[in-house]
Write a structure and sequence with these properties.
- By secondary structure, the protein is mainly α.
- It has eight helices and no strands.
- The chain has helices at 2-10, 15-39, 44-56, 60-68, 74-83, 90-109, 112-143, 146-196.
- Helix 5 runs parallel beside helix 8 (146-196) and helix 7 (112-143) packs antiparallel against helix 8 (146-196).
């Protein structure tokens, strides 16, 4: 633990905004994983097979109850919108499904792309810290006495390397999570669009 503290302190001022990016990224990852894996996601194929059986048996009320069993999942919300207008005609069913789709998709996509932005900002801050560390290292070499040059050089080189490393430590998990969450988002949206089409 003391090594991490030393690493952080040696990184200088740019470590603080990178740490904020890391905390923000972790928060976004947790929130998006909870919503996309547990709230909006459902086994679309199995769900639609059950709905089709109930609709074929003309048991619309049971089909609506099945949708209500997963009230926060995206696909059942869209299906329910169509089922509640099952006796109104094809155009109204289609409009209801389209309206529900337009409401649900932005909720599914919300904040996932922020992870990519946080990763980019963390990387850029790391590079900026590196540049400032190197600039200060060269300044120190010009101004310092020969006996202090190596100590100052080591100090500023550690700022340069630590900010780069910490920027990558913050960025890489965000990018990995972004890739995973984007694929889950696409899966959910594809199920909704297949059902609506």
């Amino acid at each position: 633990m003391s090594e991490i503290v030393t690493f952080y302190k040696q990184g200088g001022l740019f470590m603080h905004p990178i740490a904020i990016c890391l905390i923000l990224g972790i928060g976004l990852m947790i929130e998006r994983f909870i919503f996309l894996f547990f709230k909006y996601n459902i086994n679309g194929a199995a769900f639609m097979a059950q709905i089709q059986k109930l609709v074929m048996a003309n048991n619309i009320d049971r089909a609506i109850k099945l949708c209500n069993a997963a009230p926060s999942a995206a696909l059942p919300k869209v299906v329910k919108a169509g089922l509640t207008r099952a006796n109104k005609g094809e155009v109204e069913i289609s409009n209801a499904i389209e309206e529900a789709t337009l409401e649900v998709i932005p909720q599914v996509q919300k904040r996932t792309n922020l992870l990519s932005a946080v990763a980019n900002v963390a990387t850029m801050l790391g590079l900026l810290g590196t540049i400032f560390g190197l600039i200060n290292a060269f300044k120190a070499l010009e101004a310092a006495t020969p006996d202090k040059k190596s100590a100052l050089l080591a100090k500023f080189i550690s700022i340069a390397l630590n900010t780069t490393a910490f920027g990558l430590v913050a960025a890489i998990p965000c990018l990995v999570a972004h890739a995973i969450l984007t694929s889950i988002t696409k899966k959910i949206i594809n199920e909704i669009e297949e059902m609506g089409g």
